[in-house]
Amino acid sequence: MRALLLEDSLQLQAILGIALRDMDFTVDCVRSISDAVDALKFEQFDIVIVDLDMESGDILSTLRTLQIYCKDIWMLVLAGTSGVDMVSAAMDYGAHDFILKPIKPRELRLRLSTRVKTDSTSKDLRALECGPLKLDQMTRVVTLDGLELELTPRERTVLEVLLRNKGATVSKAFIASRIYSFDDEAGPAAIQIYVHRIRKKTAHPNLKIHTVRGAGYRIATRNLESTS
User: Fold this and answer.
1) How far is C-alpha 86 from the chain's CA centre?
2) What is the pLDDT of residue 57?
3) Peptide bond before 102: cis, by omega within 30 degrees of 0?
């Protein structure tokens, strides 16, 4: 999953970035509303985190602007204990949840875990599955026939993208957009390496990750595939 963090404190960027990456999030940090808008125009995000205590600009005006581009994106706001009124206003402008400072990484993880649970109410999206392969989005544990697999955070994220699009072909460019932040130098070519590693770790008679020449990759159970 990919997160956009609007935060002008480099110290908080570092603290929150570590906590988010520990949860397998790809994190993009911006320090101004204009940069946030540009990011939302051209990239796809799963969550947006906004610090209401930023020093520059009218934060409520910022939230009104973000609301235009975040209609379908979950928004978390951060504020000091004296900023409860600001939090209330932020919720009116589309924010879904809040955390009061000082920020505790454990609380951030709990709030984001709650978000995953909420997304899972209409369908069991907590666990992404394809035949014998399962990825628990809450714990980030990957199992094959019930046995836990050791995957790196990037490998888990690539696998998550494939599982979310089970049976459909996913391009290298799209996978790259979900696992790389603005500051990452690696591109779509590196996706081939991750897929190769995932194939080795998830080898199973009833599971296959297909390479669709010129298009990307598709994960499916073998007994549902009519082509190889």
Assistant:
1) 26
2) 62
3) yes
Q: Token pair of 212, please?
A: 């669709």
**pLDDT for 106-146, tens place per residue?**
888 888 877 765 554 444 457 899 999 999 987 889 999 99
- Tell me the β-bridge partners of 98: 77
CB count, 10 Å around CB of 122?
A: 7
User: pLDDT tens for residues 176-222?
Assistant: 988 888 877 767 778 999 999 999 999 999 999 999 998 999 999 98
Whether the per-residue pLDDT at 67 is higher than 50: the answer is yes
Q: Choose which CATH entry (3.40.50.620, 3.40.50.300, 3.30.460.10, 3.40.50.2300) describes domain 2-119.
A: 3.40.50.2300
Q: Which two tokens stand for residue 158?
A: 């690539």
Helix and strand counts by DSSP (H, E) for the chain: 8, 11
Where helices occur in 84-152 by DSSP H, the ranges are 84-92, 105-119
The stretch 87-92 carries a mean pLDDT of 86
Q: In whole angstroms, what is the distance from residue 139 CA to residue 227 CA?
A: 34
Sorted by where each begins, the domain ranges of the chain are: 2-119, 127-224
Q: Answer yes or no: CATH 3.10.20.440 is held by domain 127-224.
A: no
- As given in the structure block, the two tokens for residue 208 are 């296959």
Q: Which two tokens stand for residue 26?
A: 């790809």
Q: What is the dihedral of CA 13, 14, 17, 21, to 10 degrees?
A: 170
